[in-house]
């Protein structure tokens, strides 16, 4: 069976920057409070006329340009998001049309902050099955659209961005996808959610007035789950494939909170130089954090061809996952 590899990536970040000082003028908070609790210093916010598909389209174009291929070469597009342009049609359809990916199929995948890893696993398995040659996995979210800017516990955490990986057939067994380990735990679903807007609680004047179309979170519960489950799945995945944390050149975790990342690294006994953190510049961009962190790791010379790279994530649902790759370029 063929092995899948990540052959290119592309990212897009809106130009507008919202700093902690800017937020302090909107809600009762300050830069020191935010940095100490989250590690975030600023985040990027999309303009009012820019939607999730627009961010994702820009990232998709960047990934194709980096690989030097055209959109019709794609077999499928998987868009990972919790902030679609609309419930239907899917954001994947919108991006496929604007990209000009004639002949490609695709769908939206909803797994919150674990979404991008879930999309990578689907893409890698489709390539390994031999039924697909080139799949674009896009993580795109405009979290600013579902934030309550009177709630300092959540509004400081998120930003807008998009990233995309091109997954295709590897040239050899010495590179590419090694495996993944995922898990969901619906018993924790109430601790991180957007209550209204679905069939359970359709939009109404009351749901809007009560800000139920915004992110609601029990931060303590989410923190404990994220650290524990990312550690368990990462360690289990490494053991399954005959590795230990000492073999990992770089851990690229979902960027939800610097304290979560630090706690995970400590439990895995990984030194700071082998853990990628860029949450200070972008905050939590949900499905876009891992491609953004990967881009910055490459730019900083921390991820190179042949490196063993471990991705890990946890998010609403609860969802969680880990994915192991031998970096291909």
List the helices and strands and how they pair.
Elements lengths: L3 E9 L4 E3 H5 L6 H8 L3 E3 L7 H16 L8 E5 L10 H9 L5 E5 L5 H14 L5 E9 L9 H4 L4 E10 L6 E9 L7 E2 L11 H5 L6 E2 L1 H22 L9 E4 L4 H11 L10 H4 L6 H11 L8 E8 L3 E8 L3
Parallel strand pairs: 4-5, 4-6, 11-12
Antiparallel strand pairs: 1-7, 2-3, 6-7, 8-13, 9-10, 12-13
Structure description:
β12 and β13 form a beta hairpin. By secondary structure, the chain is α/β, with parallel strands linked by helices. It has eleven helices and 13 strands. Helices cover 33% and strands 23% of the residues. Strands 1-7-6-4-5 form a five-stranded mixed sheet, with helices on both faces. Strands 8-13-12-11 form a four-stranded mixed sheet, with helices on both faces.
Strand content: 15-25%
Could you estimate the helical fraction of the residues in percent?
25-40%
- The name of the CATH topology of the largest domain is Peroxisomal Thiolase, Chain A, domain 1
Helix segment tally: 11
Q: Specify the structural class.
A: alpha/beta
Overall mean confidence score, pLDDT? 97
Main features:
Peroxisomal Thiolase, Chain A, domain 1, 33% helix, four-stranded mixed β-sheet, 329 residues, alpha/beta, 2 domains, 23% strand, five-stranded mixed β-sheet
Q: How is this structure best summarized?
A:
It is built from eleven helices and 13 strands. By secondary structure, it is of the alpha/beta class.
